[in-house]
Amino acid sequence: MLDAILTPEQKMLRDETRAFVKGVPRKLILDMDADQVHYPREFVNDLAERHLLGLRFPVEYGGRGLGWSDEIVALEEVGILGTSLACLYSLPSIVGEALHVFGTPEQKERWLRPVLEGKLTVAEALTEPRGGSDFFGTTTVARQEGDEFVLDGQKRFVVGAEGADLFLVYARTNLEAKSRKGLSAFIVERGHGVDVEHVYGLLGTRGGGTGRIYFRGARVPRKNLIGPLNGAAEVFYQMMIPERMTSAAGALGMARASLEVAARYSDRRKAFGQKIRSFEGVNFKVADSITQLDAARMLVYGAARSLDLGDDPHRCRRLVSEAKKFATDTAWQVVNHAMQILGGIGYTNVYPIERLLRDTRLIMIWTGTNEVMSLIIQHEYYRELLGRRDTARDIEKDATEADQGEEKVYE
Ligand SMILES: Cc1cc2nc3c(=O)[nH]c(=O)nc-3n(C[C@H](O)[C@H](O)[C@H](O)COP(=O)(O)OP(=O)(O)OC[C@H]3O[C@@H](n4cnc5c(N)ncnc54)[C@H](O)[C@@H]3O)c2cc1C
User: Fold this and answer.
1) pLDDT category, 391, cuts 50, 70, 90?
2) How far apart are CA 268 and CA 356, in angstroms?
3) Does 369 contact ligand 1 (Cβ within 6 A)?
4) Mind listing the pLDDT tens digit for each residue in 8-31?
C-alpha cells in the first residue's frame, strides 16, 4: 500500500506481517507447488500464534478489532507468497465474516474463537459441479429431521477439502421457494457422510488440498445453522465482501513481487552492451506495471475505506467488485510483463515468475469470475445513476442544439 496513506499503526502492521512473511520457509512454498503438501496447517498455526488471523474481528474472539483499511495492508504482504498461502490466510477472514455477522454468541465461541486461535481450520463450500457463477442454483439439499439437517449433494473446487476441520456449506432447505429464498448456510464438521473423493491437479495454487466433497446423508445439528433458516442469501452477500477483498488485496502482493523481480533483473541483465532497462520496450513495461499496480492499490483502498465508513451497501458492492476485477487483471498483466522482461529464463523455474503466473491465472476466475464482477459493476452503477435525483448540472443541455427535442429519438 502507498506509504503516504498509511497511518503509523498500519505501517507497524505492514512491517509485522512483512517480518512473518519473510520467515515463511522457502521449502513450504516449493513443496506446496510440487503438491507434496496437501494442507499446511503449521502455516495457519504460525499466523494464529502471531495474532494475524481475522484482524477485523473483535478482540474478545481473538481478532484485533481493525478495519478493512488495515486488513488489506496485511493481505498485500501475505500475497507475495502466492495464491495458495494467501488463500489459507484469507479463509478465516471469509468464513469468519459469516460467523461474526450472523453467528450467535455460542457459535462465535465454538467456532470463531478457535479458528482465530488456529485450533480449527475452515473452508468454504459454495461451488457445485453444475456451476459456480450461478450460485443461487445450488442443488445440495438439507432436509430437516427433528433437531438435525441431513445433507445430500456435492461441492467442488473447495480449497481445504483435504485438511480443513470445518466447512461453511450452502444448501437448499426449501425446495418450493424461489432459489434465493430457499437456501441456508451451515457449519459442517468433517465426519460421517462428508467424503473428499477427488483432489484436483491444478495449474497453480497447489498444496491447499483443493477437492470435491460429497455429502451423503451427512447429519448436521440445527445449532450449526448460520443465520436464518432459508436466509442464506444475506449470508452469501455478506461473505462476498471478504471473499473478493481478500482476492483483490492478495493480488497486489503477487503483482508487486513479480514487478520487483523483473525490475531488478532488468537492472542487471545486458543486451547489445547495455542494461536492458535502458530499452523503452522494457522500461515502459515497468512503468505500465507500476502505474497499474498503484491504480489497483488505490481502488482496493477506496473499497476498503468505503466499507469501513459504512457507505451505501450497493456502492460498496460495486467498489468491491471493481477492486477484485481490476486488481486481479492487473496482477495478471504485471506478471506477464515480468515474464516478458525476463525473456526465456522467466519461463523456467530458475525464477519464481512462472509460478506466480500460474497462480495469478486463477484469481481472475475464482471468488466470482471477472465477468461476474462486470455484471455486478454495471448493475450497481445503473441502479445508482438511474435511481438518483440529480442535483448536479444537467450536462445534456451543454450542446449547441440541445433543444432539438424531435432529434432525441430513443425507440
Ligand atoms: C483452484 C480453485 C479453487 C477454488 N476454491 C473454491 C473454494 O474454496 N470454495 C468454493 O466454493 N469455490 C471455489 N472455487 C470455485 C470458483 O469460485 C468457481 O470456479 C468460479 O466461481 C466459476 O464457477 P465455474 O467454474 O462453475 O464456472 P461457470 O460458472 O460455469 O462459468 C463458466 C464461464 O461462463 C462465464 N459466465 C457464467 N455466467 C455468466 C454471466 N451471467 N455473465 C457473463 N459470464 C458468465 C464465466 O465468467 C466463465 O467464464 C475454486 C476454483 C478453483 C479453480
Assistant:
1) confident
2) 21
3) yes
4) 999 999 999 999 999 999 999 999
- Ligand 1 near 199 CB (within 6 A): no
Average pLDDT, the chain: 97
Q: Whose CA is nearest to atom 38 of ligand 1?
A: 133
Whether 48 contacts 117, CB under 8 Å? yes
What percentage of the chain has pLDDT greater than the value 70?
100
Q: How far is the CA of 273 from the centre of ligand 1 (A)?
A: 47
Mutate which of 39, 139, 157, 371 for ligand 1 pocket (most atoms within 8 A of beta carbon) = 157
170 lines ligand 1 (CB under 6 A): no
CA distances from 239 to 96, 405, 408 (A): 9, 47, 44
Place of cell 465461541: 109
Q: Which one-letter amino acid corresponds to residue 93?
A: S
For residue 353, how many other CB atoms are within 10 A of its CB?
26
Q: What spacing in Å lies between the alpha carbon of 241 and ligand 1's midpoint? A: 17
* pLDDT tens readout for residues 140-161: 999 999 999 999 999 999 999 9
